[in-house]
C-alpha cells in the first residue's frame, strides 16, 4: 500500500565542505558524527582559517564516553553537546536568530532530525544552496496525521496508531518539507477495524 517513487521524498547527497562560506554551523545526531568529522577534515584541507568560524552542535550516541564524545576537532570555534535533539534544535533556532550572512549549515543524522533542522533553517530564510544534509542512522519516520494534525515520532512500521486521535494510519511516502513529516492517512476508513498486516519497514 506504500506508494514508492514519489518526487516529494527527499534525496540527500553526502556532505561536502563549502569553503566559500564565511561561517559554518554543523548539527549532528548520533551516527552523524562521522560525516561531520569528514567535512571538518575537508575544511582543514581547503580553508583552514574557516575552522575558527565553525561551530558544532552534537547529540552523542548513548554510552559515548569523554567530554567531547568523539567530536573534538582541533581549531574549531566551538563544540556544544546536547542531551537530545529537542535541546539541540532549540539552541539552533537561537543561533540562527543572530547568525550572519554567509553562514553554511551542515546536518547529519536520521531523516526526521534533518527534516526538523531544515524546517527551522528555511523559516529563517536560509537558501537551499546554503544547507547540506546527509542521512544516516535509523530510517524511522515522523508521521503527520492528516485527520487531527498530530505528529507521531520514530515510526518504524507501515501502519501506526496516531498519538493524537488514535486512528490507525497508513504511512505514505509523500513527504512535506513544510511539516518535516510523512503523511499518515486512516487505513481502515472503509472497513473499520480491518487492518492489513503491520510490518517493520523503516529500520
What would you note in describing this structure?
- This protein is an alpha/beta fold.
- The chain folds into 2 domains: 23-135, Nucleotide-binding domain of ferredoxin-NADP reductase (FNR) module (Rossmann fold, 3-Layer(aba) Sandwich); 138-203, no CATH class.
- 20% of the residues lie in helices and 28% in strands.
- The chain has helices spanning 33-46, 85-97, 111-123; strands at 23-29, 54-59, 78-81, 103-109, 131-135, 141-145, 151-155, 159-161, 168-176, 181-186.
- The strands form 2 sheets. A 5-stranded parallel β-sheet has the order 3-2-1-4-5, sandwiched between helices. A 5-stranded mixed β-sheet has the order 7-6-10-9-8, covered by helices on one side.
- Strand 1, helix 1 and strand 2 (54-59) form a beta-alpha-beta unit.
- Helix 2 packs parallel to helix 3 (111-123).
- The longest helix is centred in the first third of the chain and has 14 residues, at 33-46.
- It is elongated.
- The two termini are 18 Å apart.
- The mean pLDDT is 92.
